Structures are given as structure tokens and as C-alpha cells.
Inverse folding.
């Protein structure tokens, strides 16, 4: 019963050193396997341009950007950073990004695991297939269409929810002007869209567990809850760990596609739903000054990088099977 | 599994699962129904599963002579087809090489790709590079930046191919198959499950993307569908804020929803086929062995 659910996402560049093979020179190796290197070339080139070539541009964060001079503009030290960190937005967007992502991860994984456990107990094959298909559907739909659906529900004049409230004698709620409703709304949206998808991986891990274990536990008198708690959960843990770890590494990155589609330029919701990514975008679009946007972007990249390494380091120390690299 | 009795908890579980499944589908039904109702019934009764009046007006406007939706459809379709095809080939090539034990630098290359997964410089360099290489304000802007290659998919493919026994490669070589033949006529068909999965990932990525258009497209003739949808919304907001002067009352809400329906169209049509491969591909790609 080897549970390898997530090897798919592990980069694994440190294992499997080539078996005894005569050492040849660099050029010789390239020539010998020229077809293989030719195949990897487009991807390598793309990654070079959109990955490594972006690094020199980081200098802009410390410069007063001038379109004629490009990345060789005048050095102004940390002024761009100060501009951002002196504004109240620095705290607001950081908090929104981290808190919302944290809630997405927490509520999201709990729901996905719960759903996978439930799906695992469903007996009817056809029913299982049909419900899994419909749960997966929202995953394929763009956030813009989701934003329309949401409006159909919440719109003050025409929204179904408001009509319902009114029918029960309540007062209409102007959702789009009141930030206090939006943490729950955003979390629910996220769950609605992604749970079907994330539960697939968990369900696959659960079905990969050796049936014999359950039978043995059953004979020993373990009821369903005990079997879930003492067999399924521990064996599911590596999968949970690695997926959560990947998410924590991305906790500093807001989902632009989601937030910009749902919130758009709605100023009254920004205090609660403006995330770093949408803020960088707005600064760049509105001020047209790449310096400050780059500074915020660099702040995001560095903290994000530290978070990936930190969470991986902790995992590797206490739970090596769950580590990403 | 163990006992086949229909228990109370079994019923409860099915009920809950069914309810959630229904919840995932109902909003789409609402979108379709709204697209088929008259503007008046929406303003009077709100969004409803049972509109008082039905109409095809939104669709006739959408496919009418002054509509820009058909052109956007063409833009999105072109970008999706070209992009997905190129992306899958690029990713397969890289994944194949990284899985091949003949390639001595495969681990170094894996690291090279992995680094860009955990450190990204963000929006500004991305924008400037896209502009510098002229993937800006043309169809390539909707194909190349961000969407053409994802290291995540690369590792998915590599790990899949790695599971194929190496002896296959050796025996093919002994039988006299050339490098190209081994890569594309032997390993390629064997990798179909994972290729189907990444095809779907890439295609959905292209179809649903609006970020590239927001950032890199100024010419409205080059707007993809999602961007069109996005714009309709803000235009309608502006229209509703203006004083009603001209006697012009286009179907706004139903038009929005009708556009959503045609945007979802290909996904809905291909869905039964897609999701079968998708679940299989993810499960095979992730739980091999």
C-alpha cells in the first residue's frame, strides 16, 4: 500500500543520480543527446525569458523609473518601498491577502477532505459519477461568469437572495457596499468553485488505501468512525500536508483572476478585499509608475519565497514525507 | 465494502452529496434561464428560475450585425487552439527529456524550472518583457505570456513518464527505433492520460483568461470573450448610472447572461468527455502505482 498521491507535484531533482555512466564533457553530453536537449529547448527558453530575464527588472524597485533609461534609471534607494509602507494600504492589502488565503486553505481543505470521505461512502456508482461531475463543473468556469452568478444572487434590486429576504418581510441588503459580508462570501465562493476539484485528489488517496486494513479493523471491532479516524486520516496525512504546504507557500499571492472579477473597482469593498496582486495592478495602471509597483512586487516575492522555504524546512524537520523538496 | 445494508447514515450521506452537487449546478441553470427571459421580467421579478416572460431577444442581439461577440469568439478560439497545441508539445518535449535517464543534466534542468515556480518577480517585469518581445496588443499577447508553459504541468508529465519502465526505451533502441520515433511514436501514446489532463489545464487556462487582455490588449477588436464579458458589465453599470435619456432599452441582464451561456458553451458541450479524462488523468498522474 504505497501512497504516492502527490509525487506528481514534487520536483525531485536531488534523487536518482545517474547510474554508473562514463563522465563526459559538457559539450559531448549535449552532442550525444542533442535530440533530448532540442526537445527541452523551447520550455527552457520560455522559462529563461519569463523567469530569469525578469530578474534584472527588479532593480526598478530602487529607482526613479525613466522610460528612456529603462532599468538603468536613477537610483533612489528605498524611497519606493517607503512610499508603500508609509501608506495604510501596506497593512490592509497584506492582511487581506494572508487572512483570506489562510481561510481559503483552512476551510477549503476541511471541506475537500470531508467531501472526499463522504464520496468514499457513497455506494451507487451512477450517483457517485453524476454528483462528482456536477461538483467539478464550477472549477472549469471563469471567475467573470461566477461574478455574474453572484450578482444574480446578491444584487440589491434583482438579486434572488434579496427578493427572498423581502418576501419574508425583511429589509433588502446592499451587499456590494458593505465590506462586512465579504469574508464569508469570498470563502463560500472559493469552496463552491474548488471543492469538487480538490476532493478528487483526496478521494484518489483514500481509494488507494489497502482494503485489507479496513477489514482487519472491522474484525477487531472498529466502527466506521474509528476506521476513518485511525486508518483513513493518518494515511491521508501526507497528501494533506503536501497540498497544504504548497498552498501556504502561495499564501502571499492573491488570486487576481478571482478578486478582480468579483470585486472589480468597487471602492467600498477594497478595505476588505483588496489583495496584494490587485493593489500592484492598480498602482501600476493608475499611477503608471513601475517603481512603486515593482517595490511592492519585490516585497511580495521575497516574503513569498521565505514562506515556501520556511514551511518546507519545518515540514522536513518534523514530517519528512510531507516535504516538497 | 463491508456491509451492504442501507443504513440511516448512508441515506444522510447521499442526501448531503446530492445537495452539494445540486448547488454546484443550479447557478448555471439560473444563468441559462435568465438569458432566455425578457428584460422586463428580470427588472420586475428579479433573477428567477421561473421568469414571467420568455424571449430570445438577447441572443438575436448577440448575433446581430452590430455585435462584437462573434469576433471575440474567433479571437478566443484562435488563441485557445494555437496556444494549447503549442503548450502541450512544449511541455511534453521538456517532460520527456527530464524523465529520460540518458540525459545527464536532467536534475539540474529540473531545478532550473523549479526555481521559477517558487520565485516570481511579479507583474512589472512580466509586462515590460511582454512589451519588449512584442507580445503586446496582438493575438500573441493572448497566447504567449503566462499561458504557454507551466512548470507544474511539466512535472506532471515528467513524473508520469518516469513511471514507464526504462526497459521499454532500451528494447525500442535495440529494435532499431530512432530517437524521434521513441519519443513520439512510443512514449507519446503511452502518455495520453497525462497529456489529456494538461491539454485540459492549458485549454481552460486560455479559454478563461482575461488577465492578459486587461494588461496587454488596448485594441478592442482583439478582445477575447472573457474580456468582452468583463467590459459588458462595467458598461452596463455606467449605463444604469446615466439618466435615462435616449429611448433605447437594450436587453442588459439577459444579454450578459446570454453571453455567459455562449462563453460556457464549448465547455458544456465537451464536458462529459473532458471530465472523464480529467478525473482519470489526475488520478493516474498523481496516484500511479
Amino acid at each position: 500500500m504505497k501512497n504516492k498521491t502527490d509525487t506528481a507535484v514534487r520536483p525531485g531533482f536531488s534523487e536518482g543520480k545517474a547510474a554508473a555512466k562514463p563522465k563526459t564533457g559538457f559539450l559531448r553530453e549535449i552532442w550525444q543527446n542533442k535530440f533530448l536537449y532540442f526537445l527541452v529547448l523551447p520550455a527552457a527558453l520560455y522559462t529563461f525569458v519569463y523567469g530569469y530575464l525578469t530578474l534584472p527588472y527588479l532593480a526598478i524597485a530602487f529607482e526613479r523609473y525613466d522610460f528612456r533609461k529603462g532599468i538603468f534609471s536613477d537610483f533612489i534607494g528605498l524611497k519606493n518601498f517607503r512610499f508603500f509602507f508609509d501608506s495604510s494600504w501596506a497593512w490592509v492589502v497584506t492582511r487581506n491577502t494572508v487572512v483570506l488565503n489562510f481561510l481559503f486553505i483552512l476551510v477549503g481543505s476541511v471541506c475537500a477532505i470531508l467531501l472526499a470521505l463522504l464520496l468514499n461512502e457513497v455506494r451507487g456508482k451512477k450517483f457517485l459519477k453524476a454528483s462528482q461531475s456536477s461538483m467539478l463543473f464550477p472549477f472549469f468556469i471563469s471567475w467573470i461568469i461566477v461574478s455574474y452568478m453572484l450578482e444574480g444572487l446578491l444584487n440589491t434590486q434583482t438579486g434572488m437572495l434579496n427578493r427572498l429576504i423581502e418576501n419574508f418581510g425583511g429589509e433588502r441588503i446592499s451587499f456590494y457596499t458593505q465590506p462586512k459580508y465579504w469574508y464569508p462570501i469570498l470563502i463560500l465562493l472559493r469552496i463552491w468553485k474548488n471543492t469538487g476539484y480538490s476532493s478528487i485528489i483526496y478521494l484518489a488517496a483514500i481509494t488507494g488505501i489497502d482494503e485489507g486494513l479496513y477489514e482487519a479493523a472491522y474484525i477487531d471491532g472498529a466502527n466506521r468512525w474509528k476506521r476513518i479516524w485511525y486508518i483513513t486520516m493518518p494515511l491521508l496525512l501526507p497528501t494533506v500536508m503536501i497540498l497544504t504546504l504548497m498552498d501556504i507557500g502561495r499564501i502571499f499571492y492573491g488570486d487576481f483572476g478571482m478578486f478582480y472579477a468579483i470585486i472589480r473597482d468597487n471602492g467600498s469593498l477594497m478595505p476588505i478585499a483588496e489583495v496584494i496582486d490587485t493593489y500592484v495592478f492598480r498602482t501600476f495602471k493608475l499611477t503608471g509608475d513601475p517603481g512603486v509597483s515593482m517595490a511592492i512586487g519585490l516585497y511580495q516575492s521575497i516574503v513569498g519565497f521565505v514562506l515556501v522555504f520556511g514551511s518546507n524546512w519545518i515540514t522536513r524537520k518534523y514530517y519528512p514525507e510531507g516535504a516538497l523538496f | 465494502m463491508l456491509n451492504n445494508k442501507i443504513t440511516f447514515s448512508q441515506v444522510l450521506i447521499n442526501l448531503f452529496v446530492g445537495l452539494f452537487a445540486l448547488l454546484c449546478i443550479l447557478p448555471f441553470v439560473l444563468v441559462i434561464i435568465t438569458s432566455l427571459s425578457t428584460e422586463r421580467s428580470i427588472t420586475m421579478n428579479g433573477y428567477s428560475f421561473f421568469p414571467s416572460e420568455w424571449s430570445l431577444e438577447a441572443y438575436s442581439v448577440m448575433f446581430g450585425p452590430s455585435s462584437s461577440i462573434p469576433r471575440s469568439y474567433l479571437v478566443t478560439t484562435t488563441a485557445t487552439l494555437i496556444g494549447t497545441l503549442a503548450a502541450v508539445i512544449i511541455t511534453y518535449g521538456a517532460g520527456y527529456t527530464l524523465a529520460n535517464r540518458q540525459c545527464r543534466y536532467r536534475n539540474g534542468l529540473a531545478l532550473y524550472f523549479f526555481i521559477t515556480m517558487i520565485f516570481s518577480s511579479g507583474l512589472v517585469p512580466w509586462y515590460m518583457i511582454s512589451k519588449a518581445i512584442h507580445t503586446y496588443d496582438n493575438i500573441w499577447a493572448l497566447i504567449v505570456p503566462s499561458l504557454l508553459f507551466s512548470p507544474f504541468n511539466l512535472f506532471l508529465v515528467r513524473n508520469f513518464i518516469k513511471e514507464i519502465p526504462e526497459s521499454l526505451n532500451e528494447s525500442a533502441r535495440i529494435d532499431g527505433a530512432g530517437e524521434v520515433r521513441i519519443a513520439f511514436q512510443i512514449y507519446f501514446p503511452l502518455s495520453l492520460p497525462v497529456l489529456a489532463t494538461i491539454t485540459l489545464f492549458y485549454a481552460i487556462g486560455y479559454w478563461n483568461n482575461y488577465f492578459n487582455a486587461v494588461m496587454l490588449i488596448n485594441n478592442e477588436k482583439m478582445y477575447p470573450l472573457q474580456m468582452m464579458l468583463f467590459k459588458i458589465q462595467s458598461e452596463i453599470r455606467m449605463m444604469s448610472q446615466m439618466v435615462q435619456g435616449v429611448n433605447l432599452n437594450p436587453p442588459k441582464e439577459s444579454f450578459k447572461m446570454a453571453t455567459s451561456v455562449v462563453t460556457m458553451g464549448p465547455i458544456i458541450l465537451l464536458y462529459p468527455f473532458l471530465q472523464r479524462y480529467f478525473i482519470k488523468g489526475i488520478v493516474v498522474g498523481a496516484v500511479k502505482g
Remarks:
- The first helix of chain A runs from residue 26 to 32.
- Residues 80-322 of chain A form a domain with the MetI-like fold fold (CATH 1.10.3720.10).
- Chain A has one domain: 80-322.
